[in-house]
Amino acid sequence: MAEFGELEAQDGVRMPWNIIPVVTKKEQSIDSEIPVSAIYTPLRSSTEHPLLLPYSPLRCRTCRSVLNPYSVVDFSASVWGCPFCFNRNPFPSSYSSIADNNLPPELFPHCTTVEYLCDSYSSPSPPVFLFVVDTCLISEELDFLKSSLFQALDLLPDTSIVGLITFDSLVRVYELGFPHCTKSYFFHGNKDCTKDQLLDQLSFFVKNPKPSSGVIAGARDGLSSEDIARFLLPSSDCQFTLHSVLEELRNNPWPVAADHRPARCTGAALRIAAGLLGACFPGSAARIMAFIGGPSTEGPGAVGIAELKVTVEQTGGFVVLAESFGHSVFRDSLRRVFQSSGENDLGLSSCGIFEINCSKDIKVQGIIGSCASLEKKGPLCSDTGIGQGHTSAWKMCGLDKNTSICLVFEVAKRETPDVVLQSQIISTQMVKQDSGLQLFRDDGSWELKAYRQELTNGFDQEAAAVVMARLISFKMETQPEFNPQRWVDKALINLCSRCGEYQKGIPSSFRVPSQLSIFPQFVFHLRRSQFVQVFNNSPDETAYFRMILNRENVSNSIVMIQPSLVSFSFHSPPEPTLLDVASIAADRILVLDSYFTLVVFHGATIAQWRKAGYHNQPEHQAFVHLLQSPRDHADTIISERFPTPRLVICDQYGSQARFLLAKLNPSSDGNGTFSGESNVFTDDVSLSVFLDHLRRLIAQ
Fold first, then answer.
1. Which intervals hold domain Sec23/Sec24 trunk (predicted)?
2. What is each CA distance from 565 to 562, 572, 581, in whole angstroms?
3. Surface-to-core class of residue 372, CB atoms within 10 Å of its CB (0-12 exposed, 13-18 middle, 19+ buried)
4. Per-residue pLDDT at 429 exceeds 60
5. Which residue has the higher pLDDT, 215 or 416?
6. Helix or strand or coil: residue 496?
7. How many alpha carbons lie under 13 Å from residue 11 in its C-beta half-sphere?
8. What is d(CA 583, CA 65) in angstroms, rounded to the nearest whole number?
9. pLDDT tens for residues 310-359?
10. In what order do the strands lie in the sheet with 349-355?
11. Which residues of 190-201 are buried (b: 16+ CB within 10 A; e: fewer)?
12. 405-411 and 362-368: which strand pairing?
């Protein structure tokens, strides 16, 4: 899979099928289980060929695609052929010196991804942060939250625009531009408030008359800069006022019955925040930073993480779920949001538009990820929509350098084969497309070794597992009767039966190509993951896990599906080990990375030595190093990841060892005896049993 990683490093793209199967309408395509798709990371930086062109892209007059290395250039006629619609386009006068030995950078063969600095480019406006703070918290939690907010505000650039809203059963909008004392406007939490009502109640039109027609949108359309600066102003101008307001914040004073939750009008607060930003800074890099301590219980909207999922994903936002505002998961993650320098900078960007163009016979079904449809319909759109579908353009309101979207395509089935070969034994055809993809057609004879080898050579197991996980999550949310285990099992059986080799009725004869060798293992762990097994998680936790999955790249997503396990011991250097109970040993330390949680697991002997204080004795420096190495490894992962994972340090046979045991393969010898030094009591089958069942079902 190294070659797929190299392609991702250059272009930010991973595809399950790098050689695309094409069939006729009478045939069943191999991509019916794992569709032709791509995981694309728009802001992934290319370290090998960073290229910024200081001019606008040259586009096709017909389909608006961009001049690229796959375009056919006629130097004598000074025209280029579009590889998508095959239209011939003249070069402008700025390309008059183009020649075979004098190519523009966008035609270099290795420049498959370039960036353009358009003529209409202007310096970006400062970011806008509107803080929405829940005060329905106990005093200790509110103190934790205020401490983190003070640290975050100190990290903001002086030019950043900030505002503040707090809420409990009432919503308070603070006028930070009023320096004499704390001044705020109150709104009832059980009433909805439109944008026009909000502007009227905030006295936006006292000095300047309200426009009689048109849309009110910012200082250019109906609002004065002075009125906007009353509520949203540079942090350098309101730092003292903002700190004073936060210091004075107190939790909700109204008593709450023992069997009731506090009156929390989250929906009304978010509606007011969105209305204020939409009126004052339309189309800008604005973020609502909401700090919520529980579910909404009053006013419009039933707001929890599960209910907020659609809003967060379509606006390109992110969520951090923690047990407390004092937990390191929340504190460190909030710090990362405002960290604007260093190698661990999130690289936050805003206001992006993503468009796609496809070759003939390929249509777009949709995107699963952080974006919103722009409703650009046309011949590129498939009749079947998935995720944000029925469009070929999307708005990406917020994204970072790891934000990844999953594009799902539909390959058109043809009425008849393109070529009728005289031989009825070999009936496959390979067509090389100008777009760089290879399309294959097959008449149902999947056993043909040459065809199978070519197809599997382009199969990316990791990308396929991630696409499958996103599809399962989407189907479980949109199809109430969907059975994820049955669907994923059927997909695995069909794929392995078509690409593998076996003798009918002999399960032991089953073999899969090396390109599919670990895909069944990915599927096994996917079936046991939090994306499929939702019984032990709340709806908010399940929504949180899926939101992170839908925005991360392949490398991070595969860790969510199949966690990594690293072993530390006296006898060998740190090394990856099997995700199996057999890896547990008394004299070994294991570090489990499941993306959301990092577990440092001490074997029984190691734990006894640590409790005896051997690491405090100077003659046991090797033991000190053994204890410290796993922590350093975990700290490195924590520093690079967002949201910050939870760190669990535990001992063998301790209560928190469950965080490790729940992710391990419960292997046994078939008689109930486990192969490791810890027993895992579970109803799940082991990986070996799972693979045995797979072989039998395929060989039937």
1. 124-302
2. 10, 15, 11
3. middle
4. no
5. 215
6. helix
7. 14
8. 52
9. 999 999 999 999 999 999 999 999 999 988 766 677 888 888 999 999 98
10. 349-355, 393-399, 372-373
11. eeebebeebbee
12. antiparallel
